[in-house]
UniProtKB/TrEMBL annotation:
Cellular component terms per the entry's GO annotation: nucleus
GO MF annotation: an example: protein dimerization activity
InterPro entries linked to this entry: MADS-box/MEF2_TF, MEF2-like_N, TF_MADSbox, TF_MADSbox_sf
Annotated organism of origin: Populus alba x Populus x berolinensis
Record-annotated membrane-spanning stretches: none
Domain MADS-box: 1-61
Protein name: Transcription factor CAULIFLOWER D-like
Broad class of where this protein is predominantly found: nucleus
Assigned keywords, A-Z: DNA-binding, Nucleus, Transcription, Transcription regulation
Length: 61
């Protein structure tokens, strides 16, 4: 038995939304790093928070 489909919708609670954003942001940054390392790929990732704060990752130094 597999998992059912999850409906994605906006998180209304501001605190829960910010916590989820932080956790998912860190996960995305980690995946981008792993992709660049494992596949020797040039990866760039740009994330803007709901407050307009910039988070970035680049595999090129």
């Amino acid at each position: 038995m597999g998992r059912g489909k999850v409906v994605l919708e906006r998180i209304e609670n501001k605190i829960n939304r910010q916590v989820t954003f932080s956790k998912r942001r860190n996960g995305l940054l980690k995946k981008a790093y792993e992709l660049s390392l494992l596949c020797d790929a040039e990866v760039a990732l740009i994330i803007f928070s709901s407050h307009g704060k910039l988070f970035e990752f680049s595999s090129i130094e």
